[in-house]
């Protein structure tokens, strides 16, 4: 069944589980929850009515990152002998951040009771306010079942020239004093004061995430990329006897953890395809991620959240 392109909310259901989509807010997931014994359980931090009314992607439960993830230093980089300048794209941050897909409305292409497809078409001539000098299209196929919320992202370079590219998703999880993060990574990317990566190396949080107890969300002030991610991470609330596990396919070969000390209510564990500022980092591609899509080339990848209540 086709959905109207003007639809502002899409609700998916499977039994007691619900996903609310806000296509007009950067193709975002606004909520993922379920009802148990008369109470609502939030698996992702839900968008507030105010955030929905303001169409604020940063207030959503999760939003897509396209055509790059994280920051690009000074909103510029060199590509194929030319400077790509993103300083006029309307981004309010000092460095270009997260691409432009999260700040553009997506169109609902298909929807059923527990599935939806969202589509975005970016043409530079039409989207000067969200400048990216390459045409591309992207889709999100979102499916809900009894245990898992699955998101399959795809993108295609519509330009007549190669395009640098990265993608990911930016989920926020409920953060409490007892929230724990479990993951196996090889190293953490250390950052400059303005949160641009400098080098990958050891950090106590790497061992903490791999431990039986996991990493307390309050243990460190984190806004960092991680290298050598095993493609699985679990966010647990042991006092609530529940957990959600993120599984991601390649090219989501990198992970970001955002657990700022200044905002003790925020926690993000993100599947991404590239380290921040990868287009300016002079390191091996395998370490920094990212890709170059040829004219007409496509990429597709899936990640999923599986929930558990004991």
Automatic annotation (TrEMBL):
Gene Ontology molecular-function annotations: carbohydrate binding; isomerase activity
Listed GO biological process terms: carbohydrate metabolic process
Pfam family, one: Aldose_epim
InterPro entries the UniProt entry points to: Aldose_1/G6P_1-epimerase (IPR008183), Gal_mutarotase_sf_dom (IPR011013), GH-type_carb-bd (IPR014718)
Record's protein name: Aldose 1-epimerase
Species of origin: Caballeronia calidae
């Amino acid at each position: 069944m086709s959905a109207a392109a003007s639809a502002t909310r899409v609700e998916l259901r499977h039994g007691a589980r619900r996903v609310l989509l806000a296509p007009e807010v950067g193709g975002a997931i606004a909520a993922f929850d379920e009802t148990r014994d008369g109470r609502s359980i939030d698996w992702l931090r839900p968008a507030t009515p105010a955030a929905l009314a303001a169409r604020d992607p940063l207030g959503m439960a999760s939003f897509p990152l396209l055509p790059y993830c994280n920051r690009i230093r000074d909103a510029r980089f060199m590509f194929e002998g030319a400077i790509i300048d993103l300083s006029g794209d309307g981004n309010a941050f000092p460095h270009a951040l997260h691409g432009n897909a999260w700040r553009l409305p997506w169109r609902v292409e298909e929807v059923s009771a527990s599935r939806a497809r969202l589509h975005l078409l970016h043409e530079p001539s039409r989207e000067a306010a969200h400048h990216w000098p390459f045409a591309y299209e992207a889709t999100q196929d979102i499916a809900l079942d009894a245990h898992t919320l699955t998101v399959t992202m795809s993108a295609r370079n519509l330009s007549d020239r190669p395009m640098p590219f990265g993608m990911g998703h930016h989920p926020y999880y409920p953060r409490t004093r007892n929230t724990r993060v479990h993951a196996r990574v090889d190293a953490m990317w250390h950052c400059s004061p303005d949160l641009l990566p400098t080098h990958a190396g050891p950090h106590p949080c790497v061992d903490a995430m791999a431990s039986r107890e996991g990493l307390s969300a309050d243990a460190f002030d984190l806004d960092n990329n991680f290298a050598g991610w095993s493609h699985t991470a679990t966010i647990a609330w042991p006092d609530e006897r529940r957990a959600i596990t993120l599984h991601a396919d390649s090219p989501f070969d990198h992970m970001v953890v955002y657990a700022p000390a200044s905002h003790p209510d925020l926690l993000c564990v993100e599947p991404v395809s590239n380290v921040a500022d990868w287009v300016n980092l002079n390191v091996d591609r395998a370490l920094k991620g990212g890709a170059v899509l040829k004219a007409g080339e496509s990429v597709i990848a899936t990640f999923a959240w599986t929930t558990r209540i004991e």
